[in-house]
Amino acid sequence: MNFRTKQFLRKRFADYYQNFQLTLPHDFPRREWGFIFFDELPEVVMRRHKAFSRENEALDYIRGMVPAHAYHSAAYYEFPGASTMKEKKWQGADLIFDLDADHLPGKIHSYKGMLDNVKSETSKLLDFLIGDFGFSENNINIVFSGGRGYHIHVHDPKVLTLESAQRREIVDYISGTGLSINYLFKPETHGLIDTGKKFKEKELISPRKVRSFDDTSVGFGWGKRISLYIISFLKGVSTKDEVDAINEIKKILNNYNLNNIKTGSISCDIAESIVQIKNNTPKISNKKIAEEVGIPEKKVRDILIANDLKDFSIEAKKKLKKIKSKAKNPKALDMIETRGIIDDEDLFNAIVLKAIEDNSINLGSAHTDEPVTADIKRLIRMPNSLHGGSGMRVVPLSLTEFKDFDPLNDALVFSEQMIEIEAISPLKPQFSTIEMKGKSFTVSEGKNSLPEYAAIYLMCRGAAEYA
User: Fold this and answer.
1) What is the mean pLDDT of residues 314-326?
2) Per-residue pLDDT band at 2 (split at 50, 70, 90)
3) Both 120 and 30 in a single domain?
4) Neighbours of 188 (CB within 10 A)
């Protein structure tokens, strides 16, 4: 970013801060503040340990200094302006979740697609916070980050003094970390009854059941989520085209078996031989392969599953018949929904695993940004500030506003005026097409004329200079 571009961006950010009615976060005098300024970009130098005792003091500083990025602490301190964390004297912190599109699984190349995906994850997180943890909507603030995701601020008094380890447990819960099928269910129990004959017969005393249904007729937490997911899955698959239904069942069977195979005790040479034999003779039986390589048939099956060479078509066809039967049986569905009773078979274990994967929230490097939630001294973006990496507004939202919020329209603050920019070579593919305000703009290397909001986005992203 050259000097001319920095000057232009700083001037337009200054105009925004002078004209927009900024609001400060709850209890701002007890928060630490941090800023990154245009002069030092592209180096990221955080100027922190700031504190403001009065609203005008904070607003005058922001309007005078015009930061590229503005942050405040999630924590509350006795002395927030102290130069060391120890001297600040920590008093508590909001519970913060940072969902970033870059951290979510699956590769989505368009900016719009990434934002749609992370909004869906944020909706799931809100459902956990309100439905499972019982936080009031009044104690939850939703904020579009101005970049690639959303921040959720929970300022319920019950969470303020939680330590990092306790906050990490909350992350583990919503991400399904360590959640096992065996823990969720009480296994079925049997007893022997005397029929008056020579041998006693086994009788089912209690069926396999979701544990959370022991205390309530509608279940709660993960148990309730899974029972509802199973019902939705049964109904959905039973109404699909047969080929599509079989393919969906094959996927969940493969996924389930892939999570339960054990191939560690098998040498690489034997595993390679199994794969080669199967590729050369696709219709060969597992039993025949086992005889050739000299290991149990179950181990052969595990190797084939691990290498995506196991065809679950036959199993899937059989399972589909059972699924359709249950989906048409109101009594069977009612037993799942109101009593949490689920048949003990591989199909249902596979569906449960899929339910956990689909319901869990992706936080952090692999899931939601776990370090943010556990970090009780973290700085988070100031709502209504501008994001120096996009030029978009950090937008605070109510639950109602969040449902209809479109960041590529509602977070844009700059004008439609056409301005000239110089796209930097080599132009990365993600910047060759810009979708904003329902319009699509094609960008090529060299000079381009774009609406100010799109031009500023590219300049802030380091993809263009002010021409």
Assistant:
1) 91
2) very high
3) yes
4) 15
Contact 68, 9 (CB under 8 A): yes
Residue 197 lies in a domain: no
Q: Is residue 409 part of a domain?
A: no
Does residue 267 sit in the same domain as residue 384?
no
Q: What is the pLDDT of residues 117-171, one digit of tens each?
A: 999 999 999 999 999 999 999 999 999 999 989 999 999 999 999 999 999 999 9
Is residue 10 within 8 Å of 66, Cβ to Cβ? yes
Structural domain count of the chain: 3
CA distances from residue 128 to 125, 156, 364, 368 in whole angstroms, order as listed: 5, 15, 17, 13
Q: What is the pLDDT of residues 162-218, one digit of tens each?
A: 999 999 999 999 988 888 888 888 888 888 777 666 677 778 788 888 888 887 777
Q: Are 323 and 235 in contact (CB under 8 A)?
A: no
Residue 293 in any domain: the answer is yes
Contacts of 3 (CB under 8 A, 6+ apart): none
Region for 151 from its dihedrals, namely left if φ exceeds 0, alpha if ψ lies in -120 to 50, beta otherwise: beta
- Report yes or no on 194 lying in a domain: no
CB 351, CB 252: distance < 8 Å: yes
**Are the CB atoms for 48 and 64 separated by under 8 Å?**
no
Say if residue 385 is in the same domain as residue 453.
no
Q: What is the value of pTM for the model shown?
A: 0.85
Q: Are residues 121 and 153 in the same domain?
A: yes
Dihedral angle of Cα 20, 21, 26, 28, to the nearest 10 degrees: 70
Are 355 and 378 members of one domain? no
Q: How far apart are CA 353 and CA 255, in angstroms?
A: 8
CATH code at 68? 3.90.920.10
Give the structural domain span for 338. Answer: 212-359
* Active-site residue set: 98, 100, 369
**Same domain, yes or no, for 286 and 347?**
yes
